[in-house]
Design brief:
Number of helices: 2
Protein name: Polyisoprenoid-binding protein YceI
InterPro entries: Lipid/polyisoprenoid-bd_YceI, TTHA0802/YceI-like_sf
Largest sheet: 8 strands, antiparallel, barrel
Strand order of the largest sheet: 1-4-5-7-8-9-10-11
Mean pLDDT: 90
CATH topology: Lipocalin
Number of strands: 11
Structural class: mainly beta
Organism: Acidovorax delafieldii
Helix content: 10-25%
Keywords: Signal
CATH class: Mainly Beta
Radius of gyration: 21 Å
CATH architecture: Beta Barrel
Strand content: over 45%
CATH superfamily: Lipid/polyisoprenoid-binding, YceI-like
Amino acid sequence: MRKSLFALTAVAALFAGAAQAQSANYAIDPTHTFASFEISHFGAAVNRGRFDKKEGTVQFDKAGKSGKAEITFDVTSVNTGTPAFDKHLQSADLFDAAKHPTMKFVSSKFVFNGDKVASVEGQLTLLGKTGPLTLKANQFNCYDSPMLKREVCGGDFEATIDRTQWGMNYGVEWGFPKNVRLVVQIEAVKQ
């Protein structure tokens, strides 16, 4: 009888702990969230750009060490600082913004190292094709924002992708590299 009571108490405590560990919803803060890309230009310089318009949500459970994210980037908002280059990037040669005005990252797996997010695994949809993408966390933290009076979580992430996996082949025959470095800064505000 005593063992049964102990087992029942342990199961009840387990369920009570599971009920307390709930994910919270966060909204992307567009003033602190950017996706940038870098690609070598014939080994002489590095072309860089970013997407200025984005939206998304994150579900995050610190105690349960899990999370989900869905972030959409408007490729018509690509910004390199050179309008003519932006226009070429939006053309059918590269992002084909007329047919594919957005790219989306959807993740259902956050990988932890201790209490910190180490990486986020998911799927990137670009040019109508979806493929795996893992964003490695260079840093990650949650803090109470003194201005917003709410919790904010975010980090600095990076990955290198082979752009031809998504059908972006422009310039490969001339020597432009297939590999593109992605740098994603994200902060999201608890709702």
